[in-house]
UniProtKB/TrEMBL annotation:
Residues 454-488 are annotated as: Disordered. The keyword Coiled coil does not apply. This is Peptidase A1 domain-containing protein. Residues 466-488 have a biased composition (Low complexity). GO terms for biological process: proteolysis. InterPro entries: Aspartic_peptidase_A1, Aspartic_peptidase_AS, Pepsin-like_dom, PEPTIDASE_A1, Peptidase_aspartic_dom_sf. Belongs to the peptidase A1 family. It comes from the Eukaryota. GO terms for molecular function: aspartic-type endopeptidase activity. Keywords: Aspartyl protease, Hydrolase, Protease. PANTHER family: BETA-SITE APP-CLEAVING ENZYME, ISOFORM A-RELATED (PTHR47966:SF51). Residues 94-457 form the Peptidase A1 domain. CDD domains: pepsin_like.
Amino acid sequence: GKPLPSLALPCPAPLRPESILAACEPLRRYVEICEPFWGMPPRPLPRTVVLLAVVLAPVHGLAPSSAWRTSLARRRARSQYYKQRLENHQDLQYMANITIGNQVMSGVPDTGSFELMVISQRCSTCGKSSAYYDYASSQTYRAGELFTAHAFGSGTTHSQEAFDSVRLGPFSVKEQYFWEVIWADMPILEDGIIQAVIGLGPPGQAYTFAQAAANMFNKKMYQFETKGLPVPTELQDKANQTTELADEMAKQESLLESLMVDLFSVCLQKEVGSDGFIVWNDEHPGQQLDTFIRVPIVGRFTWAMQLESAAFRGSEQPQVDIGCSEGCGAIADTGTSLLSVPVDVADRALQALNALGSTSCERLEELPNLEFSLGGTRHSLPPEAYVGYVYGIAPNTQKFFPWLDLAKPFKEVKICSLLLMTIDVETQYGPLWILGMPFMREYYTTFELGTHGSDSRWQRPQTWRSTASPSACRGSSSRGSRSTASGA
């Protein structure tokens, strides 16, 4: 029942889902013993809603891969600014073009995961799409020897390690490692819109979990040896396997590493149907402290923040507290369509809105703002961030929005509803929130991976958010015409 962190483990042939899971058993046992920081992943969402946050445990004090050991000055000298358009799909998904081999694919930029995943035409459970990756058409493709399982809020995938050339705007990598998805239990893939997941979490997680598993097995071997007992062959094989895997993961570079990106920004425009932008190697927001506010990151390997004092506040209504008085954890996730909040927060929010009397999606201006503190700074989201129309087929819709009163459960519905997905995950800072696309529409958000210290370890990553509206991000892609107000 525990989530499988993204970790590659050798898989026996022939390739079958049960074989992959069996190969991942050492990791499963490690997770059960060590208990992940973020706990269980959120429950699956409707097909029209995307949740790509991978819930992983940040482990402090472990060195990242070799690429991040270069100096910040050297990285900055080699970096290149690039503003890329994100295509809007029904305000639920934002897609960026990325070229794998010679194939242009549509991928979700996802700050909730950390690896490049590509949906393969070999995947018989991923829906039918000619747009999926075809390794046979690439002359630069090379298959790896490792297999892995990924756990997302929207489902699970099993993948094979692969290598190919990658291009993203002006950036290019001759041989980038990625995971070729060959089996999936993820309904959102069936329409073929999502062809890749571009993981943008801080690098180092694959190495971290591989090294942790290797340490666990080596510790067990040591316990046998100190007692003068023979080490079981199976245990020795697993120790050798995970140690070799950790060494391999330490050599691999994530896409952010390969592109030499240590800072990027996400800007989603407020207008319905409008495209968004992602700015690679954006200018440092510290140069515009009158516009940007720094939000500290509390996890080294996830974009995790401390959230406190959630409340409804409006000009015509008294403040209503709805949770996190003793603190919560939050992840900034560009791969999640809505806001995900603890169950008790959603319940209090619904009670507070019902107490206002008649509410309507046609009169959102009458509703209060949703406010909370991130890293000690107050943030405010407008009513359209948490209330809107729900379209779908009941009872599937009611399963994920249990407060809806659907009299005709087997017909299409369009109903004004609270758009807060519920999530039941505990962190060391309290219940978990996922700040998805509604947050990015209100705040221009910059993700900074951190700086290199003298102790050969990276300082904590951090996020910055602009006090200006993201609507200012519509400028051209040239650095000289960027808006000072938004930092775009």
